[in-house]
């Protein structure tokens, strides 16, 4: 089974490869993606078709949402003060948090 930390690492890789954007799932003209699209791509790549894609996304959102002070990850991603470095740092902290959770729940 694919772990949440593995999904988050994959999401980070997608953002690093494609670039980050706000206010859109993906910018077709540049290929840049938002945080939620990165989570979707990671889950699709690593869990489909053995599990529905949304399961992996939901697991990642649960970890990341607990780390931000925002009503939603989309709102957090789209905040006008948000920078790409913030998103990558959130993923790094999320990976660490997921590793700790997995250590104590498995």
Q: What features would you describe in this structure?
A:
The protein has 5 helices and no strands. It is mainly alpha-helical. It has one domain. Helix 1 packs across helix 3 and helix 2 crosses helix 3. The longest helix is centred in the C-terminal third of the chain and has 22 residues.
Concise overview:
The chain has 5 helices and no strands. The chain has 106 residues and is mainly alpha-helical. 34% of the residues are buried.
The average pLDDT value, as a whole number, equals 96
Question: What's the number of structural domains?
Answer: 1
Residue ranges: pLDDT <50 for 5 or more in a row? none
- Give the terminus-to-terminus CA distance: 12 Å
Number of strands: 0
Principal-axes shape call: globular
**Tally of DSSP helical segments:** 5
Q: Could you give the order of the helices and strands? A: HHHHH
Describe the oligomeric state of these chains in a short phrase.
Answer: single chain
Structural class: mainly alpha
User: How much is the radius of gyration in Å?
Assistant: 13 Å
Strand content: under 5%
**What summary fits the major beta sheet?**
none
Question: What order do the helices and strands come in, and which of them pair?
Answer:
Layout: H1 4-18, H2 35-47, H3 53-65, H4 73-78, H5 84-105
Helix pairs in contact: 1-2, 1-3, 1-5, 2-3
């Amino acid at each position: 089974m694919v772990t949440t930390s593995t999904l988050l690492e994959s999401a980070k890789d997608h953002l690093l490869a494609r670039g980050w954007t706000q206010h859109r799932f993906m910018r077709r003209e540049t290929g840049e993606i938002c945080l939620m699209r990165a989570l979707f791509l990671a889950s699709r790549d690593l869990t489909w078709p053995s599990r529905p894609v949304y399961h992996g996304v939901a697991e990642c959102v649960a970890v990341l949402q607990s780390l931000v002070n925002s009503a939603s990850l989309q709102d957090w991603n789209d905040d006008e003060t948000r920078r790409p470095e913030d998103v990558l740092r959130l993923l790094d902290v999320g990976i660490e948090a997921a590793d700790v959770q997995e250590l104590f729940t498995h």
